[in-house]
């Protein structure tokens, strides 16, 4: 995240600028789904390309990003693409302090603002739980586990109050230490192929559920 472009372009709007401009127009009846997030979203396409292949799924994850960065690029990387649904996963890098100190309320302010922007543009929202993590390898000793539990509780409460589907990856991936199960991650934070396969199934079910609602 230390390149000159990213220093000048804090939210990294340039990353998907060309891809966004080349996206084909939606065909009649086509339902585009945008996945918005950080490295867990970005790496999904590389480790599980079959999940995205042949589907109108657009990956707009950027490694290392925090929720304020996503909020700034939300119009360019989500709203302008005119999706039917946005699947939003954010918060882990905020807890790690990637772009400075952040309270849980600051994180949810940004996540909920993105949800409200989407709804204002008739885009249906799926809010995802933050994945479990016992520690962050790039910031050892940060002890994020309990903060993640609290943040997920806040996201679920908002989702329930606003008739938004809450996609619970956390419960399917968590171990007895409130970390990511070793079978699903090689570094304790980022899912491996097996971890993404669990997420594939949960995401597909959530998308189908939202699309089936009138």
Automatic annotation (TrEMBL):
Which Pfam families does the record cross-reference, listed alphabetically?
A: Lipase_GDSL_2
Residue ranges of domain SGNH hydrolase-type esterase in the record: 35-198
Query: Mind listing the GO molecular function terms for this protein?
Result: phosphatidylcholine lysophospholipase activity
- Keywords in alphabetical order, please: Hydrolase
What stretches pass through the bilayer?
none
> What's the protein here called?
Acylhydrolase
Species per Swiss-Prot/TrEMBL record: Flavobacterium franklandianum
